[in-house]
Design brief:
It contains 18 helices and ten strands. The chain has an eight-stranded mixed sheet, with helices on both faces. A two-stranded antiparallel sheet has the order 2-3. The relative contact order is 0.09. Helix 15 runs antiparallel to helix 17. The longest helix is centred in the C-terminal third of the chain and has 23 residues. By secondary structure, it is α/β, with parallel strands linked by helices.
Length: 374
């Protein structure tokens, strides 16, 4: 591919000492130059003969925490782009140079002066507005504030359209972000720990799933998407995003032992099950990778299982209500193609749980108010 999209978070950067940024620099074909104090003070290009491939262009979407904690890392990437663009190499061997020079010419033709055009065409690290956090896609999904993937793509662009440049300075750059997304052919997110997976929170699909759907909508073609697993440095693996998400579903989300263990945590455990189903909806909304078979298994184990249903109605009926709402939403939005009988079972269960909640609210004691009170 000529251009790859990368997701970088702050906490993994701390744990790995910058593994994702090292990947970005390696793709562009540069190495960091270290000072005696252990800081990166410059970058040096790797010769094309040694590199053995063209220099790959990279667009990186970093989290708000990364922006706050590692502005110098963003500055290193910015400097790497400037260094690579200035090399005396052909466009066939240097995709960074190719894209920056071609887009600079286009922007000059639109009326920008050469300096501003070069700067706008060189943005490669993007984040949320100063003081903002997240990718936004999960907010739209959670609130049901979307009708199509195009809506989710627009949210991703609006939230992430702020460029991090030299010395970590942030500037509004929605047009530049959209141009970059339109060029991306593959996306990558590195995962460095086995203690978390794609269903731990909505941030996972918000950042990577949102990236994928934004590229698909803007470029007109879904990118290849990968997850680099470096949790075991001696056995690093690369999976497609679909493989990784479905692996997490089989290993944890649909694992009977894990499901049973959540009952030890009462109200909180039921709430976590509800959140897990919400995240499944988010992954399917952004990438379409939760199959009908997987949805059917989620419904069977989270909603229709009589023992689990009875437990949730006792400890946290709101969680069961949310689970049935989410499963019905998956059907209504066309994410899960199931039969009418299954949909009717879910509606009936949803109505019964709603009735339980209304009865519970109606039976709550009403405090007496003394006639002497003002």
């Amino acid at each position: 591919p000529e251009e790859i999209g990368v997701v970088a978070w702050g906490t993994p950067t701390v744990r790995t000492r910058g593994e994702t940024i090292a990947q970005v620099l390696a793709l562009m074909g540069v190495t960091p130059q270290w000072s005696d104090a252990g800081r990166v003070e410059d970058v040096e290009p790797i010769g094309l003969d040694e590199l053995g491939r063209p220099r790959i262009d990279v667009t990186t979407r970093v989290s708000g925490l990364f922006r706050d904690a590692f502005p110098q890392a963003a500055s290193v990437v910015h400097d790497a782009v400037e260094t690579v663009v200035d090399l005396d190499e052909s466009h066939e061997q240097n995709y960074v140079k190719k894209h920056v020079e071609e887009e600079s010419q286009e922007l000059e033709a639109e009326g920008l002066d050469s300096e501003d055009a070069r700067e706008a065409a060189s943005h490669r690290v993007f984040t949320t507005r100063p003081g903002g956090y997240g990718a936004g896609t999960n907010k739209a999904v959670d609130e049901g504030n979307w009708e199509s993937k195009a809506d989710l793509a627009e949210v991703y662009v609006q939230w992430g359209g702020y460029a991090l440049g030299s010395r970590g300075r942030t500037s509004e750059a929605h047009a530049a972000f959209k141009r970059r997304l339109g060029n991306v052919e593959a996306t990558v997110k590195i995962e460095d720990t086995m203690e978390q997976d794609e269903f731990d929170s909505s941030d996972w699909y918000a950042f990577h799933g949102g990236f994928i759907t934004a590229v698909a909508e803007i470029a007109g073609e879904e990118p290849a998407s990968y997850v680099g697993d470096s949790s075991n440095p001696d056995n690093v693996g690369v999976y497609t995003n679909e493989e990784k998400v479905r692996k997490a579903m089989r290993a944890r989300v649909l694992n009977p032992e894990w499901l049973d263990s959540m009952e030890d945590h009462g109200y909180k455990g039921a709430g976590d099950l509800s959140q897990t189903v919400d995240v499944a909806l988010g992954w399917d909304a952004t990438t379409g990778i939760v199959s009908d078979t997987l949805w059917a298994e989620v419904a069977e184990k989270y909603a229709f299982d009589e023992d689990r249903q009875e437990w949730m109605r006792e400890v946290n009926p709101w969680a069961l209500d949310s689970i049935t709402d989410t499963l019905l939403q998956a059907i209504e939005r066309g994410l899960w193609d199931t039969d009418d009988a299954t949909a009717d079972r879910l509606r009936d269960l949803n109505l019964r749980v709603d009735g339980d909640l209304e009865a519970r609210a109606g039976s709550a004691a009403t405090p007496e108010v003394s006639s002497d009170d003002d």
